[in-house]
Amino acid sequence: MAVSASKDFQPNVAEYIEEAFERCGLELRTGYDARTARRSLNFLFADWANRGLNQWTIERVTQNLIVGILEYPVGTITLSVAASGSFTIGETITGGTSAATAAIITAPTATSMTITVPSGTFVATETITGGTSGATTTVSSAVSLENVQATIDTLSAVIRRSGQDISINSVSRDTYLTIPDKTTTGRPVQYYVNRQITPVVLVWPSPENSTDQLIYDRLVRMDDADTSANTVEMPFRFYPCLAAGLAYYLALKRVPDKVALLKGLYEEEFERAAQEDRDIPSISLVPTYTFLNAG
């Protein structure tokens, strides 16, 4: 018999739920069954994030550094406006109604600008004013922080100057706090990721020009399982792990007597998947020669 010649097997959320129910010895019968299973699936995604998984959701972010600005969102915050051509990079904007403030961190386009994490909340239809240029425009819609809040952690970072990438070190909260003068200017050599609900990265020294770029890899959360028709954002090799994990989570609520069995299967599947989901660099072993002098 001929093989299928296809490699597109990709279960949707409903099929994962059916598989998990069957592993629990149950049948999917009601709308609530599907709803509680989708909720468990989203909790499972959070567990994977805590375990340091999701290598396939690594994103590379390039952020232009601005003189005098130390703090940048880990991701992108876009403010949609009626017109923005007269504003300048690095200036502070202020909302006329909300009194919210933020700094512009990339060159504005015709109808949008990217900003630092706002202090306060910009509201639709209010007028914003540039602190340096004096330019004004109207906010088209409320600012979404979703892109930044989807960040789990950063992995590594470099400073790009004149086409050359120079590695910089990640430091702890305490180390950053104890830097005596955070306004010292120069090429940044350290960064600290403040992992709040809306994470930010702080660089030191303070950027000495607006041509350097901060480039970093960030780990972001997987897309939610909002509906049963959704597919799941993950590679083929993790399909068994997801089915086993969801079955275990459902067993906690429906068949407690099978929890131990399904938990063991899930941890086994997870261990196999996690071992595969890693960097595998080449290793070169260089022998050390010891020379002995005969006296």
Structure in words:
With about 300 residues, the chain is an alpha+beta fold. Among the domains are: about 15-55 and about 220-275, no CATH class; about 55-70 and about 145-220. The chain has helices at about 15-25, 30-50, 145-150, 175, 240-255, 260-275, and strands at about 60-65, 70-75, 80, 90-95, 100-105, 110-115, 125-130, 135-140, 150-160, 165, 170, 185, 190-195, 200-205, 205, 215-220. A four-stranded antiparallel beta sheet has the order 1-16-9-10. A hairpin with a 5-residue loop joins strand 4 (about 90-95) and strand 5. The longest helix is centred in the first third of the chain and has 20 residues, at about 30-50. The relative contact order is 0.19. The mean pLDDT is about 95.
Give me the side-by-side strand order of the main sheet. Answer: 1-16-9-10
Please tell me how large the radius of gyration is. 25 Å
What is the mean predicted local confidence, pLDDT?
93
- Measure the end-to-end span: 77 Å
Low-pLDDT stretches: none
The percent of residues in helical segments reads 25-40%
Shape: globular
Sum this structure up briefly.
By secondary structure, this protein is an alpha+beta fold. It has helices at residues 13-23, 31-50, 146-149, 173-177, 239-254, 259-276, and strands spanning 58-64, 71-73, 78-80, 92-95, 101-103, 112-114, 127-130, 136-138, 151-161, 164-167, 169-170, 185-186, 190-194, 200-204, 206-207, 213-220. The strands form 5 sheets. A 4-stranded antiparallel beta sheet has the order 1-16-9-10.
Topology:
Elements: H1 13-23, H2 31-50, E1 58-64, E2 71-73, E3 78-80, E4 92-95, E5 101-103, E6 112-114, E7 127-130, E8 136-138, H3 146-149, E9 151-161, E10 164-167, E11 169-170, H4 173-177, E12 185-186, E13 190-194, E14 200-204, E15 206-207, E16 213-220, H5 239-254, H6 259-276
Parallel strand pairs: 11-13, 12-15
Antiparallel strand pairs: 1-16, 2-14, 3-6, 4-5, 4-7, 7-8, 9-10, 9-16, 13-14
